[in-house]
Amino acid sequence: MTDQQRADQVRTWLGENGWYLLAGLALGLAGLFGWRQYSGFSQHQAEEASAIYTDLQAAVRASRTTRAEELLQQLASEYKGTPYLDLGRLLVARAAIEQGKPGEAIAGLRQVAEGATSTEIGDVARLRLGRLLIQEEKYDDALKVLVPPRDSALGARYHEVRGDAYYAMGKASEAASEYQQALQPEDVGVIDPAFVRAKLEEVGGSTPPGAVASDAAPAAGAR
Questions:
Q1: Burial, 4: exposed, middle or buried (Cβ in 10 Å; 0-12, 13-18, 19+)?
Q2: CA–CA separation, 160 vs 196, rounded Å?
Q3: Is this prediction's pTM over 0.70?
Q4: Could you tell me the end-to-end alpha-carbon distance of the chain, in angstroms, rounded to an integer?
Q5: 172 with 145: CB under 8 angstroms?
Q6: pLDDT per residue as tens digits for the range 36-86
Q7: What phi and psi, each to the nearest 5 degrees, are found at residue 104?
Q8: Which of 132, 163, 180, 192 satisfies CB 3.0 to 4.6 Å to 208 for a cystine?
Q9: If we measure between CA atoms, which residue out of 71, 147, 80, 152 comes closest to residue 111?
Q10: For domain 19-145, which architecture applies?
């Protein structure tokens, strides 16, 4: 298999999985963190930020790019340091990908990855950034970003995507090692075990002892 064929296959894998953590999960994160940690904000201000974020979602869905940029700038200027700004940047980055603007998406994801208000949102941003860098064939950069987080449900997904990077680089042994780690029961997270096993077989690896069953259902949000 040529390098180009290998890269094309990785893109197909990434495309099939899609942006598996979408706006719904992002909103769940926002609700989880809430505004209790931002004691300096009034309930009214919290509601305003939430309303702006909701408008931003609508603008992104309607492909109103200029309006989305205006709303994101409003969040950045008036609600800096809140989850709503981070989540807004994730939404706009996703829209940039769909519009064929990977450079803009990478820049936005880096902002969240490097300065997120919470570890969880930062982990999501780094994972998305790593996947995008692989699609752009920037494999070394992707591996630097994709350092698996500790004590996170995303750990297995990080290993899986690291495996994709190594596969695209033609490093079958390293790819197999990452896929095997993704299949460990204690770190299964949000993956599709059968899909990861298929990729493991593709690189000539064997399923590790005690690996999660192939027919195990992926966790919510795995796609």
A1: exposed
A2: 7
A3: yes
A4: 27
A5: no
A6: 454 455 667 777 888 999 999 999 999 999 999 999 999 999 988 788 899
A7: -65, -40
A8: 180
A9: 80
A10: Alpha Horseshoe (1.25)
